[in-house]
Amino acid sequence: MLILGIESSCDDSAAAVLEAARPGEALVRSSVVANQDDIHRAFGGIVPELASRNHVVTITPVVERALAAAGCKLNDIEAIAVTRGPGLVGSLLVGLMYAKGLAQTLDVPIVGVNHLEGHLLAPLLEHRIAMPFLALVVSGGHTSLFVVSGFGQYREVGRTRDDAAGEAFDKVAKMMSLGYPGGRIIDELSRRGNPLRVKLPRARIKGAPLDFSFSGIKTAVATLLRSEGAVGIAAEDLAASFQETVVEMLIRPTLAAARQFAVSTIALTGGVAANSRLRTRLAEAAAREARHLIAPSFKYCTDNAAMIAMAGSWRLLRGDRDSLEIDAEANLPL
């Protein structure tokens, strides 16, 4: 089955063509993403209204580029998978309405996909993974641990109580006047810094060892920057210390969950999965416990439509079809 995937949950317009033979086994024929970093950089973060307006401009060219790169035409598409939530409702509506129009015109099935399910199954784009496995989904909007027992069988066993890790990266970068997107800038800056230079708090949730909290470390950095204690601390050292602390706070609950649920494979996915320090430290920590870490290529960590097509493929292959009445849901649960 040749599936067109469409993703517009936040500020990236994305389309992909996936050739799926059976659930979990697929060939990515193309994956195209148009990001809006240059548009939102001046504001230090994503402006929802600007994001949705730009999706209107870019969605058609992105789909056309994906089809051309896949070597196929629109009439060759046999099904459509599109993100319906969670995300910014204005952005979601652009992609969903576009996909519904295509599905009606082509008379092909359409399925709405949960954005988080896309991230959970993104590693399957490049790897074969035996289930069950543990997935750490860490991005600008989400930080959660899921046990993936099968397609459509996901159990959230840990989550952030406040900020997502990616949100903390962006906010700290803004406090430090480093620019946007903050996560990428802090990762690059940290390579030149001393991660032991600044001692920052490591949050633990009493009675919930698999949960996360990043509001405390964000507040600690803000307090430090307003105090005389920040004098003499290089930006590289503060960035490295912040990053190292966040990485440690992500690793501890992840390994605890792997032990508790007796899983040997850990999947790291989501935008923050592109962080070089997190990938290295988590791989090392997993190996010490005879566990295996799998992470997608950088292009499949951040928002993309190939993961949406993958997540929709198992339903499409078994004959599922959503109504054209499906709507966007900003807080769609998994």
- What is the CATH third-level topology name of the largest domain? Nucleotidyltransferase, domain 5
Mean pLDDT: 94
Specify the overall morphology: globular
Low-confidence stretches: none
Identify the strand order in the major beta sheet. Answer: 3-2-1-4-5
What is the number of E strands? 10
CATH class of the largest domain: Alpha Beta
Q: Supply Rg.
A: 20 Å
CATH level 4 superfamily of the largest domain? ATPase, nucleotide binding domain
| Secondary-structure element string | EEEHHEHEHEEEHHHHEHEHH
SS summary, helix count: 11
Which percent range describes the beta-strand content? 15-25%
> Termini distance?
25 Å
The portion of residues assigned to helices is 40-55%
Secondary-structure-based class equals alpha/beta
Largest beta-sheet details: 5 strands, mixed
Structurally, how many domains make up the residues?
2
* CATH architecture grouping of the largest domain: 2-Layer Sandwich
Explained architecture:
The chain folds into two domains: about 140 residues, ATPase, nucleotide binding domain (Nucleotidyltransferase, domain 5); about 170 residues, 2-Layer Sandwich (Nucleotidyltransferase, domain 5), CATH 3.30.420.40. The model has no long low-confidence stretch (mean pLDDT about 95). With about 325 residues, the chain is of the alpha/beta class. Strand 1 and strand 2 form a beta hairpin. The chain is globular, with a radius of gyration of 20 Å. It has eleven helices and ten strands.
Secondary-structure map with pairings?
Layout: E1 2-7, E2 13-22, E3 25-34, H1 37-40, H2 48-70, E4 79-85, H3 89-106, E5 110-114, H4 115-121, E6 133-138, E7 143-150, E8 153-159, H5 165-175, H6 182-190, H7 215-226, H8 235-260, E9 265-269, H9 276-288, E10 292-294, H10 298-301, H11 305-317
Helix pairs in contact: 2-3, 4-11, 5-6, 5-7, 6-8, 8-9
